[in-house]
Design a protein that fits this description.
Number of strands: 5
Strand order of the largest sheet: 1-3-2-4-5
Mean pLDDT: 83
CATH topology: Glutaredoxin
Order of helices and strands: HHEHEHHEHEEH
CATH architecture: 3-Layer(aba) Sandwich
Shape: globular
Strand content: 15-25%
CATH superfamily: Glutaredoxin
Number of domains: 1
Helix content: 40-55%
Distance between the termini: 47 Å
Number of helices: 7
CATH class: Alpha Beta
Low-confidence stretches: 1-17, 24-41
Structural class: alpha/beta
Length: 169
């Protein structure tokens, strides 16, 4: 195989594995999953209440970070939770400028998935883990796949850059 063909194959494979589609049916039994009891509980520093997050953001003059995740079936989501979103450094730094919201779509807890589905529909979520950044007033200013920034340092740097761009507009 030519080196250029091999490189294209490797890059394409990596891109495919960095997101999960919420449109596909995923069998929890056939995947390495987190127990369902963990999916309904947000990690420290995060909320699952979309509306209250915006109230808090207005009061504290912050932006809002919303993560759409499939915490018990999406490998990139599970990796982001483990490597970034639960890290004390991430939560402490990101919480200075953002109210953190997790909207989960776990196969192990259909009630949570059903509760969050209207948000996925409203914001046209096409893959997980998707992050949308909003102003406190609810205006979206950027969105991206969280797995593009797989470490705390990279993710925090991207959040700072997104705020800078927002403030320039």
């Amino acid at each position: 195989m030519k080196a250029s063909t091999w490189l294209v194959t490797v890059v394409a494979g990596a891109l495919v594995s960095t997101t999960c589609s919420p449109k596909k049916s995923h069998s929890v039994a056939s995947q390495n999953t987190t127990p369902a009891t963990e999916t309904a509980v947000p990690h420290d520093g995060w909320t699952t209440d979309f509306e209250k997050a915006f109230e808090k953001a207005k009061a504290e003059k912050k932006s809002v970070l919303v993560e759409f995740t499939g915490s018990d079936w999406c490998p990139p989501c599970i990796a982001m939770r483990k490597n970034v979103f639960t890290k004390t450094e991430f939560i402490n730094e990101a919480s200075k400028k953002y109210v953190l919201v997790e909207l989960d779509f776990p196969n192990g807890d259909p009630a949570v998935k059903e509760k969050n589905q209207p948000y996925a529909d409203k914001y046209n979520i096409e893959g997980f883990p998707t992050v949308i950044l909003f102003t406190a007033e609810g205006k979206e200013f950027t969105r991206f796949f969280a797995s593009e920034y797989p470490s705390t340092d990279l993710f925090l740097k991207h959040l700072d850059e997104a705020l800078e761009k927002k403030n320039l507009n």
